[in-house]
Design brief:
With 148 residues, the chain is α+β, with helices and mostly antiparallel strands. The protein has one domain. It has three helices and four strands, in the order ααββαββ. Strands 1-2-3-4 form a four-stranded antiparallel β-sheet, with helices on one face. Strand 1 and strand 2 form a beta hairpin.
């Protein structure tokens, strides 16, 4: 009896129609490939943005460094009291330096230490880029050699 049941089950399984799941698998494979491609594209985009950010930071730091060097050079080359109180100087790479001069007015102990000495003035240099961002700001105390 068990042999009969067993053989009838085997016959049913063998004669059952075979379902074709290949087309459904292809759909899942296509979706998986699209998702993997989207993830890879996002990863590449993140890497490119990080590289761009790094390059921008490097360029800005080089601009600040060059602005400091130019401001220092301007302070060293300034002799005598500038003719105008505010002077603009065009620098390389589109940067602009603004020089301001004002008399030095010491206070407290510095005033007593400098009493009767040479007349001094302060030269302020501010360097801006093309966009108007401040890149460097320096000042120096200079003797008045012009006698003004």
């Amino acid at each position: 009896m068990f042999g009969m049941i067993r053989s009838s089950l085997v016959d049913r399984i063998a004669s059952a129609p075979v379902k074709n799941n290949v087309s459904q698998d292809r759909g899942f494979m296509l979706i998986e490939c699209l998702v993997a491609t989207a993830i890879a594209a996002m990863a590449i985009l993140v890497v490119l943005q990080m590289a761009e950010s790094s390059i921008n930071r490097h360029n800005y730091s080089m601009a600040v460094r060059n602005a400091h060097l130019e401001a220092e050079s301007l302070l060293r080359s300034t002799t005598g009291v500038p003719d105008k109180e505010v002077t603009e100087v065009a620098l390389s790479a589109g940067r602009v330096a603004v020089l301001r001069s004002s008399p030095f007015e010491p206070k407290g102990a510095i005033a007593t230490a400098l009493a009767g000495n040479a007349d001094l003035y302060v030269v302020h240099v501010k360097v801006h880029d093309k966009k108007g961002r401040l890149l460097a700001s320096m000042q120096a105390l200079k003797p008045n050699t012009d006698g003004r």
